[in-house]
Amino acid sequence: MNLEKLEKIFESEKPFRLKQAKQAIFRDLIEVWDEATTLPLVLREQLKKEVPLSIEAEISTSADGKTSKALICLEDKEELEAVLMRHDGRNTVCVSSQVGCPLGCVFCATGQMGFIRDLTAGEIVAQVLFWARWLKKNPPSHSEGEARPLRLVEGEARRISRSFPPRLALLVDARPGAIAQDDKKEKQNDKNSVNVNRVNNVVFMGMGEPFLNYDNVFEAIKILNDDNLLGIGARHISISTVGIIEGIERMALDMPQINLAISLHAPDDALRQKLMPIDKKYPLEAIIAVAKDYVAKTNRKLMFEYIMIRGVNDSQEQARQLVNLLDDRLFFVNLIAYNPTGGLAPLQNLQNNHDEAKESKKDFAMGLEPSLPAQIKKFKDILEKSGIQALQRYRFGQDVRGACGQLASSRKVAKVMNGDN
Length: 421
Ligand code: SAH
Ligand code: SF4
Description:
Low-confidence stretches: 145-193, 342-363, 395-414
CATH architecture of the largest domain: Alpha-Beta Barrel
Largest sheet: 11 strands, mixed
Structural class: alpha/beta
Bound molecules: S-adenosyl-L-homocysteine, iron/sulfur cluster
Number of helices: 15
């Protein structure tokens, strides 16, 4: 969706025309310009040619039908992934903010793929639009069962090549607002929670670091949140960041109602630097300081994501270190078992480094594995006994390799065209 082109075309029209066009796209979910009957015919003809509404994607779905991944093909032929998770009658879309990511976290498949480019606001919104159209066309009986392609162009099983940070599982319901004090109030007038045929939540936990593409992410959120457009409540939108300080500061001012999650993954800088090179620029002390500032300014709960990697960051001692670090009543922790499809490439590279490899269990040359459930439980107990709220999320669809990034193997992939321009 090329929003810049759309806006350019409407520069010479009366201002209300652009509003009509945007409403047709994002509220009425039209897929062909002919349906935008409020617009004059000549304009529709021009739009057909210059701003096609089609979104082309390959869909793959987990065996339990709860998780579907769309590999969306962009105008320049780059590809990105947007995942739909259906859980307890709610539909959560996990969107990407960049193609690839420059930050190179060792456990993350996107990080290992490197950085290709930022996504435009239109490309970010198109990921939600794709699934919004899809849900509209798939009545509840379908959407509760196995996800179905809209139009089958290519039916055979095929492997999607690009990998996606496999994660959040689970974050389906882990938005900070889910346990926020004001959540009750939110639920009472929550127009999103009842409709199983629409997108209820959006999480920026796909490919890329949202705060390295702040302006476009902010622009996209305005469209997602606008009542006259996609109408997704601010408290149903979450951004996950590695802890880009400037981004957190801007977010507290620009969009305080959006949920914030910070990827922590280690209780000390030495380990965090090994896992996430960006820690050198934004160390824990600075992140905790800005996080405290954020909750003081917004009075919002703040989620820290902590992926549990066996023998690396999951000891009881590390849980105690984490307790000391997170001393704010509005902080809470989401523990997520590491998804081993993450960063295998760097592990192999590290294997050449024999001295370091022998040094400690923390050496990634050993390979990264998810923590054992009993270990996660002990870790969680320590946090909770110290008064820190902790959630434990399992990988959604784990049993069927349905977590993001693992969807493609052994199941149907169908090429779907959303819109027909
Ligand atoms: N760049 C942002 C948002 C995208 S990543 C960030 O890093 O926060 C979203 C979440 O998925 C992050 O918490 C990230 O650490 C996590 N993640 C990445 N690879 C993972 C893996 N292999 N297993 C589990 N979580 C993973
Ligand atoms: Fe980028 Fe997030 Fe992956 Fe790190 S975890 S490489 S910041 S997408």
